[in-house]
Amino acid sequence: MGIYEPTDWVNSTQDDPFGGTAVNATRMNNIEGGIVSALPAVGEIKLSKTAINPAEVYGGTWDYYDNHMFLGFHVYQRTA
Q: What is the pLDDT of residues 26-64, one digit of tens each?
């Protein structure tokens, strides 16, 4: 997948209700592709309101990374 190129979205107006940027499959697929391309760079981290290990839901091996109790989240990171 190539470098993500964002769409310059333009709203329609009262004077031109059919103007603006059209929502279509090409533009939506561009958004989806950009999200998929960004995931490896971000890595896989899951926030949970419970202490349930994400391996039970997503499979793989997850390490308990941190407990942000002041926010009420448990943080897990995929290791394999």
A: 999 888 888 777 665 555 777 777 778 888 888 888 888
**Strand, helix or coil at 8?**
coil
Straight-line distance from the first to the last Cα atom of the chain, in angstroms, rounded to the nearest whole number: 24
pTM: predicted TM-score of the whole model, two decimal places: 0.45
Let me know: does 62 contact 53? Beta carbons within 8 Å.
yes
- In angstroms, rounded to a whole number, what is the distance separating the alpha carbons of residues 65 and 27? 36
SS3 content of the chain, % helix, strand, coil (to 5): 30, 20, 50
Tokens of 65: 């990374």
Nearest to 79 by CA among 56, 55, 57: 55
